[in-house]
Amino acid sequence: MHNHYICRVIGTGFEEDEYRPSIADVLDDARAVGGWATDIPSNPLTGAPLKLWCLVAVESEQAIHDILQAQSDIVVISVDNAARRKVRNFLRSQGERNPPDTSQGVLERLHPLDGDGAIPQIANLRAGGG
Fold first, then answer.
1. In the structure, what pLDDT confidence band is assigned to residue 104 with cuts at 50, 70 and 90?
2. With contact defined as beta carbons under 8 Å apart, do 82 and 32 qualify?
3. Tens of pLDDT along 37-80?
4. How far is 73 from 12, CA to CA, in rounded Å?
5. 59 DSSP β-pair partners
6. Using an 8 Å Cβ cutoff, are 120 and 95 in contact?
7. Angle subtended at Cα 124 by Cα 83 and Cα 63, rounded to the nearest 5 degrees
């Protein structure tokens, strides 16, 4: 099963504590089978994340998705209205104005345009292995 989530970026940026999605630690603790991929845009000068949140694609069994959805700082991106409201509320809490509530919209908020001036596509963020 494949889902997209948004969560906080954690870590100090040092080798022993790299920047990563908070989901990574939950998946490690759960000994999750499957993979994940994330998109954490960074400042080219400092390497620090540009945003305090990120988008994560997770491929795993339903039990792992249930664990993720039970976390207070991890929000699944879904089509139902309650989930979309949670996405908007999470992004507002991270300082985003007029936040999107779809996977593609969240990705575009992270990267308004890629280096070629094209809009990035959610299909390119695939869970393969964290």
1. confident
2. no
3. 887 888 889 989 999 999 888 888 888 889 888 998 898 888 88
4. 18
5. 2, 35
6. no
7. 45
Compute the distance between CA of residue 83 and CA of residue 73 in angstroms, rounded to an integer: 13
| Domain residue extents for the chain | 2-124
C-alpha closest to that of 4 among 92, 78, 70: 78
Two tokens, residue 80: 């139902």
SS3 labels along the chain = CEEEEEEEEECCCECCECCEEHHHHHHHHCCCCEEEEEECCECCCCCCECCCEEEEEEEECHHHHHHHHCCCCEEEECCCHHHHHHHHHHHHHCCCCCCCCCHHHHHHHHCCCCCCCCCCCHHHCCCCCC
12-23 pLDDT, tens digit each: 999 999 999 999
